[in-house]
Amino acid sequence: MQKVQNSIVISNYIIKYSIADIFGFDITPCLQLIHFKAGEFILNEGGASEYLYYLTEGRAKLYLTHKNGKVSIINFIEPPCFLGEIELMGAQSESNGVQALTDCCCLAVPLNECKDKMLNDIKFLKHLCVFLSTKAINNSSSFTKNVSYPLENRLAAFILMTSNNSLYTEKHTEVSEFLGVSYRHLLYVLAGFVKKGILKKEGGSYKINDLKSLNILAKEI
What we know:
- By secondary structure, the chain is of the alpha+beta class.
- 43% of the residues lie in helices and 25% in strands.
- It has helices at residues 7-17, 85-89, 111-119, 122-148, 151-162, 172-179, 183-195, 211-219, and strands at residues 2-4, 32-36, 41-43, 51-57, 60-65, 71-77, 81-83, 97-100, 104-110, 167-168, 199-202, 205-208.
- Strands 1-2-9-4-7 form a five-stranded antiparallel beta sheet. It has a four-stranded antiparallel beta sheet with strand order 3-8-5-6.
- A hairpin with a 2-residue loop joins strand 11 (199-202) and strand 12 (205-208).
- It is elongated, with a radius of gyration of 19 Å.
- The model has no long low-confidence stretch (mean pLDDT 92).
C-alpha cells in the first residue's frame, strides 16, 4: 500500500474519473490516492476500513473465510467500483476480504472526515443506490452464466479474470467451489488446456501460452 503525495497526480485522477460529480459537496480536499500491489489486501477480512475506496484501475477478488477455515471466493471486482460501501451504510460492521489480483489504484475517502457528510448527501446516496442495484443485477447475471455454459468456457473466463502477467495461480479448491464443479472435473479441464498448449504448468501455477484461444472460449459466454 502506497499513498501518493503528489497533489497534481491526485488532481488528474480526480478529473479523469469524475469522482467529484458523484457528491453533492466538495469531496476533493478529502480525497487520497492509494496504490496497492498485486497480492496486497485492500480490505482486511474482519477489520474495519478507514476509507471508502473507489477502485479506478486493476482487478481484485472478494472472499470470505468460514469458521472451519475454508475460503470461499464471493466475487471479482473491476473498476469503476466502490469498496467498503456496505460497511459505510452499516449493513455489516466487519469487512469481507478484498485482495488485489493485479496492481490496483484507488481514490480513497477517509471516513473519519467524511462519513457523516456522505450519509447525509442525497446526491451521493442516489448514486450509491444505482451502483448497488447494478451490482445485484450483474451478480445475478454471473450466477446464471455459471450454470448455463460448459466448464471450458467458464474456466477460460475465470483464468483471464484472475491471471496477472499471464500467470494463473488460484487455488483449485476455491475455484471448483466458485464455479460449482468437482475438484476432479476442474483438474481434467485444466489438463486439457495444457494438452492443447493453451496453458503451461509451472510448479503450482499455470502460464498462459495461447491467449487468443482463451479469449475465444471466454467470449462464447
